[in-house]
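Lab notebook, bench 4. Still working through the backlog of constructs that have no structural model yet. Next entry is a single chain of 97 residues. Request: give me the structure tokens for it.
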Amino acid sequence: MALPDKPIALEPDQIAELNKKLSTMRHNVNNYLALVVAASELLKRKPDLAPRMLENIMQQPERVIAEIKAFSNDFEAALGIKRDTSDVVFPSAQMGQ
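Model written out:
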């Protein structure tokens, strides 16, 4: 990871944009986690719904990862951080294995 070698100046509108993206990411991640909790609670009461609920539950980690990755990319771009992603393995790539 290559960090900038000089101070970074962000304009107030750039900070506001990052803050909005962070807020959106938090909101979306909370929604995905709420779906996992709701599906789990429903499974306790109605085990016959397992196939549908498990499919729903299994989709959420990939969605969370995508949200975090998108925000990280925006954050790093705003701060001028360069990342070599050729050796990065995201958990979603290993989930089906």
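Notes after review: The mean pLDDT is 89. The radius of gyration is 18 Å. Flag for follow-up if needed.
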